[in-house]
Amino acid sequence: xxxxxxxxxxxxxxxxxxxxxxxxxxxxxxxxxxxxxxxxxxxxxxxxxxxxxxxxxxxxxxxxxxxxxxxxxxxxxxxxxxxxxxxxxxxxxxxxxxxxxxxxxxxxxxxxxxxxxxxxxxxxxxxxxxxxxxxxxxxxxxxxxxxxxxxxxxxxxxxxxxxxxxxxxxxxxxxxxxxxxxxxxxxxxxxxxxxxxxxxxxxxxxxxxxxxxxxxxxxxxxxxxxxxxxxxxxxxxxxxxxxxxxxxxxxxxxxxxxxxxxxxxxxxxxxxxxxxxxxxxxxxxxxxxxxxxxxxxxxxxxxxxxxxxxxxxxxxxxxxxxxxxxxxxxxxxxxxxxxxxxxxxxxxxxxxxxxxxxxxxxxxxxxxxxxxxxxxxxxxxxxxxxxxxxxxxxxxxxxxxxxxxxxxxxxxxxxxxxxxxxxxxxxxxxxxxxxxxxxxxxxxxxxxxxxxxxxxxxxxxxxxxxxxxxxxxxxxxxxxxxxxxxxxxxxxxxxxxxxxxxxxxxxxxxxxxxxxxxxxxxxxxxxxxxxxxxxxxxxxxxxxxxxxxxxxxxxxxxxxxxxxxxxxxxxxxxxxxxxxxxxxxxxxxxxxxxxxxxxxxxxxxxxxxxxxxxxxxxxxxxxxxxxxxxxxxxxxxxxxxxxxxxxxxxxxxxxxxxxxxxxxxxxxxxxxxxxxxxxxxxxxxxxxxxxxxxxxxxxxxxxxxxxxxxxxxxxxxxxxxx
Amino acid sequence: xxxxxxxxxxxxxxxxxxxxxxxxxxxxxxxxxxxxxxxxxxxxxxxxxxxxxxxxxxxxxxxxxxxxxxxxxxxxxxxxxxxxxxxxxxxxxxxxxxxxxxxxxxxxxxxxxxxxxxxxxxxxxxxxxxxxxxxxxxxxxxxxxxxxxxxxxxxxxxxxxxxxxxxxxxxxxxxxxxxxxxxxxxxxxxxxxxxxxxxxxxxxxxxxxxxxxxxxxxxxxxxxxxxxxxxxxxxxxxxxxxxxxxxxxxxxxxxxxxxxxxxxxxxxxxxxxxxxxxxxxxxxxxxxxxxxxxxxxxxxxxxxxxxxxxxxxxxxxxxxxxxxxxxxxxxxxxxxxxxxxxxxxxxxxxxxxxxxxxxxxxxxxxxxxxxxxxxxxxxxxxxxxxxxxxxxxxxxxxxxxxxxxxxxxxxxxxxxxxxxxxxxxxxxxxxxxxxxxxxxxxxxxxxxxxxxxxxxxxxxxxxxxxxxxxxxxxxxxxxxxxxxxxxxxxxxxxxxxxxxxxxxxxxxxxxxxxxxxxxxxxxxxxxxxxxxxxxxxxxxxxxxxxxxxxxxxxxxxxxxxxxxxxxxxxxxxxxxxxxxxxxxxxxxxxxxxxxxxxxxxxxxxxxxxxxxxxxxxxxxxxxxxxxxxxxxxxxxxxxxxxxxxxxxxxxxxxxxxxxxxxxxxxxxxxxxxxxxxxxxxxxxxxxxxxxxxxxxxxxxxxxxxxxxxxxxxxxxxxxxxx
Lengths: 722, 722
Known about the structure:
2 copies of one chain form a homodimer. Chain A is mostly helical. Chain A folds into 3 domains: 3-28 and 545-720, CBS-domain (Roll); 65-279, Clc chloride channel (Orthogonal Bundle), CATH 1.10.3080; 303-363 and 417-538, Clc chloride channel (Orthogonal Bundle), CATH 1.10.3080. Helices cover 54% and strands 7% of the residues of chain A. In chain A, strands 12-13-14 form a 3-stranded mixed sheet. The longest helix of chain A is centred in the first third of the chain and has 54 residues, at 50-103. Chain A starts with a strand and ends with a strand. The interface between A and B is large, with 82 and 82 residues.
C-alpha cells in the first residue's frame, strides 16, 4: 500500500479558550521553504540550461535593485510628506501661540493644537481601522513572523502598503509619540513581495514576468531583501539591514542571497540619500543616508562612557513592556470595534497635545537662543527676548528632530536642566507606552531612543559632581545620551548594535553600545520579553525560536508529532480526496511512505482535472507547473470546486504531483534534533516514520512552537482554532 | 538483522594520479557538525538542569571574551615587533645610504639591505619549513576549509600559532611584499581552538575545564569566533569579522552564536586599540582599532568615483591569479624540499631589495618635503636639499605605511607622478605574485590593495585631462585609490565590502565599493577563480560550496553515494570490528538501519573495553561520555590497540554508543536536495536507504564535492588517496 500524506493532519478539535498568551493559534499556516520536488519540478529544472540559471540569477539581482530603489523612494516620500505636514502644523500653532501669549487666552492655542493633532490621527486611524487592520503598528512583529515562516494573512498586500504609508504620515504629523522607522521595514517587505511576483493580484494585473519566483521559497528570500532595504532606508544602515534580515529570517545562510540583500540595502539607502539631497537643493551632497540621522560623532571615547549604566534602562524597558502588555490585553478584550479604536487614537492625540502644552506652559527653563538659530521652531512663550523655552525643543517638534537636537547640543553647553530632562522622560514614557498598540501605523524605535537618551542624560547631569574630574563628560554629553538609548524595550540586539554603529559612523562605539544593549537585554529578559515578542505571543503566532528549549531532550518525535495522519493511495478516488479536504471524512491508512502532497496542490489538481476526468478516465491533459504557479498564493477553498457524483468515482494518479522524497525522521528522534532539521531547512512538514518506513505521524510548526521554557521548566501551550 | 554503519565506506582503491586540480584528496576528513545523539549523550543532556545550560552559556561567553582578548594581544605584539624591527632595519640602511650617496659606492648599501632582508626572511622561512609547514601562507584558505567542515591536519595547534606569529614578524620585517593581516585570522582561530578546549595536547596540560566543549560542533563555533576576532583585529572591523565567519563558515545561522562571535570581535579590536594606545603613549585615545588603519575619509563622494573602473582591475586580478597558479604548480612539483623552500624565500627577499633599490636609484621623481615631515624614512638620494625621492616612499617602507601614505596624501597635492605610479604597480605586481605561496607566513591583502590602489591612481592621473572639470578628483585622489583597490585577486566579496566600509568609517562608500568589488569579481570569475579558491583546489581539499551546481538535478542520491557500506550487527564480535577497522576485511550486510557509529567511537570502545571484555563477557564498566571527550580530537590509530585471540571472540553491544537517529534520505532524492540537507546541518555522513529502510549507501563530503560546474557543464572530479 502506498499512501501519500495530506498537509493538514486532522487532530482532536481544540475547544475555544479565552485569549491569552499560553495559546497557539491554528489559523496561521506555515510558509514552505522547502521546494516540493515532484516530477513536474524536476523535469523543469532538468530542462533548464546553465544559461537559464544565469538568467534567473540576473533577474534576482534586477529585482533586488528594484526593491531597493522603490523602498528608498517610499522612504523619501514619507520623509518629505511628514516634514511638510508637520512644518505647516507647527507653523500655524506657533503663530497662534505667539499671538495669544501677549493677550492671554492660550487655551485657544491648546485647542487648536489638539484639534489639528486629532484630525491627522483620525485620518490615519480611520484608514487603518476600516480598510486594512493589518497595517496597524510598526509591522515589525508581522515581518518577523513572516521571515520566521508563518503565513500572516494580508501582510504583504499592496493595500496594506498604501494604508501603511498614508497612516504613518498621519500619525507622525499628528504629533503622536511614534517614529516612522518601523513602518519602513514593513513597506520594504511589501514592495519586495509585489515586485518579485511580477503581478498584482489586487490590481488584477499580471506582467507575465518572474513567474519562476512564484513560490514561498523565492518569495521569502525577496521579502528578506525588502525588509533589509527598509531598515537600510530607515536608519541609513545597510549592514544593519542585512543583519536584521538574517537575525530574524534566513536560518539557512546563503551567500548569494546575502549579497543580494546587501545590494538591495545599498540601493535603498543610496536612493533615499540621492532624492533627499535633490529635495534639499544640495544634489551630490548625499548626507542623509537614512530617515533618521544622528549626524557624525567625533572619535573620543573615555572610560566614563560605561557610566551610562544599562541596568536601570533594562528595568525601564521591562516596565514599559509590562504596562504595554496589560494595555494590549485590555485592548484585545474591550477595544476591538473600529469606531472605538479610532476614538482611542484621537484621544491619545489630544492628550499628547495637552500634556505637551502643559509641560511647555509650566516649564520655566529658558535658554538663550544660539547664534546659529539651530532650533526649528523656537517658542519664546514667557521667556525673555533672545531666549526660548527649552521644554518646547523636546515637545514642540517631531520626534526625529528632538532626538537630533538632543544628541547634538554643542559641546560644553547643556540645553536642558536635569528637571526638564526628568519630566520629559517621565511624560514621554507614559505617552509612548499608551501610544504603542494603537490602531495607527507607527514605530516605537524613536520613542524608545528618546526615553533612554533623556533618562541617561538626566542621570549624567545629576552625577556630574561625582564625575567632574572627567572633563570630557561635559564636552560630549550627547554621546552618553546616545549610548544610553533605552533599548530594553525592543531587544533586537545584534542588528541594533550594528545599526547604531552605522548610524553614528564610528566603530569605536561598538563595544560600549554592545555591552549596554546586552546588559539591558539580560536585565529586561529577567522580567519580561521584548515588546515585539510580547505582541507576537498575544497574537498566538506559532513562532519558532532559533533553538529548541534547552531542557527538551526528554521529548521525542513520537510525543510531539500529530497523529494519525491523513493518507491517500498513490492512485486515489476523487470522492475520497474531496471528502477529506472538506473535512467530512478522514482517511488513515497505514502504509509505507511514498511521498508528500499539499492541500493546495490537491485543490489545483481537482480544479483542473475534474472536467477532463469525467470525459475519459486516466487520459488527462498534461498539467504544467505553471498551473500551480498561477494559483499561487491565493488558492481557492475546496468549497468552490464542484464535483459531480460521476466525477467522484474517477481515479486520480498523484504520482507526478507529490514530492517523492520528503524529509523523514524516526520516531525516537529527540525534539532538539527534530527542531534543528525543521528550522535549518525551513520545513513545513516533517514526516515521522517507524522502522518499517511506515508513516506514523507528522510534525508541523505548531508541534514545535508549543514547547517553551517557562518559569517552571518546560511548558506546553494549548492549541486554539482562533 | 540490525547493522550499524561505519564511518569510512570502503570503496574501490583509487590509483595514484599526478597532482592536479581535477582531483579530490581522500586524506582530509570531515568535521562533524551534527552531534552524535547516542544514549550516553542524551542521558547527559537529560540530567542537566536549566541552570546547567545557563552556566554553559555563560562559559561560552567567557571563552569568547578570552579569545577576543588574546587575539587582540597577539595582534598588538605582532604590530609592535614589526614596527620596531623594520624601524631598526630602515634606520640602519638609511644611514648607510646617506653615507655612501656622497662618496659613491651605493652598491654596498644595496648589499647591506639585501642581506638584512634575507636574514629576516631566512629566519621566518626556516621555522616554517622545518618546524611547522602548516603555518605557511596567510592561513586564510586553511581556515576557510576548517570552517567549511574539512579537518585540515595540524591547523589549529599551538605550535602552528607560535611559528605563524614569529614567521609573519620576520617576513614583514624582511621587506617582502606581504601583509600581516591574513595570519591574524589564522592566529585567532588557533587561539579559539586552544582556549575553548581548556587544555593543550601539545603542552600535555589539561585544566579540566570546558570539557563539555570537546567535540567538533562546539569547537567549530569557537573557531568561527576566533577567525572573526582575527579579522577584527587585523582591520578594525568587527562587523566585517562576523560576516567573514558567516560567509565562510556557519551555514547554520544561530543567533546566539553570532552574538558571541560579535562579542569576541569587539573585544579583540578594543584590546588591540587599548594596548596600542598605551604603547603609543596616548592612553584613552583609542584611534587604532585595527592593524591596518586607513584613517578617516571625509564624506564627499562624487559620481566620478565610479570612474575607477573595476573591469581592468578584475583582469589584473585574474592575471595575478593565473601567474600564481602556474607558480604554485611549479612549486608543488619541484620546490618541495625544505632547504629549497628556504632558499627560494631568501632569493625573493634579496630580489625584492634589489629591485626596490634599483627603482629608487633610477627614479628621478623628487618631491618637496612637506612642512609636517609626514614621511617616515625620507630618502634624499640625488634630490635637491629639502626634497626627497618619492619612489622611496613606496618602496622604502613597510607595506602598511605605503598604503596609508598613498591614501592620505594631502588634498590638492600629488606625491607621485604617473610614471612612478605605473612603475611601482608593475614591479610590485610581479613581486607580490612571486611572493605569495612562498614557505613563509604572510598575507596577500595589503599587496593586493597596494597594486589596485596604485593602478587606479596612475590611471586617474592619466585621465585627468578628460575629467578635469570634476575638480574633486584632484582634491581627493586618495579616495579613488582606495576604491579601486584591486580586489579581483581575493574575492571575499561581502565581508570585504563591510571591512572596507568599516575601515574607512563611512557608509556612503558602501555602494561604490560594492559595485567595484562585484564587477571585479564577475570579470575575474570569467577567467579564473579567486586566489584562495585556487590554493584550496590545488590542495585537492573537498570543499563544499554553498549550493549544489545549478544543473545537477539529473543526479540522485543513488548515483552519488558510496556503496556498499560497511555494516555491523547491533551486537558484534570484537574480531570483526577490529578487522574492518584495520581494512583487512569488509562487512556488507543488508539490513534495516538502526544507527550510525563512528570509527573514532569504535576505537575508544575497543581501547577501554578490550581488557574488561576478556575477563567477563558482557559485564562491562559503564563507559562515560568523558572517555570519548578525553580522546578527542587525537584518536589513536587502530594499530595501537592490541586484541588477543580470546578477546576477538567477545561480543560487544553497540546500542548505547551508536546514534540511533541518523539523518537518512531515500535513493531517489536529487543531488541539490541531498546537498542542501548535508550543508544546512553540517553533516559528515548521510545514510541512503531504500523504501524498506535498508541501508544502500552513504553520502559523504567527497561525494558531494566531486561535482562542479566546469566550462562544459557538470564535471566530476576523481578521488585520490594523497
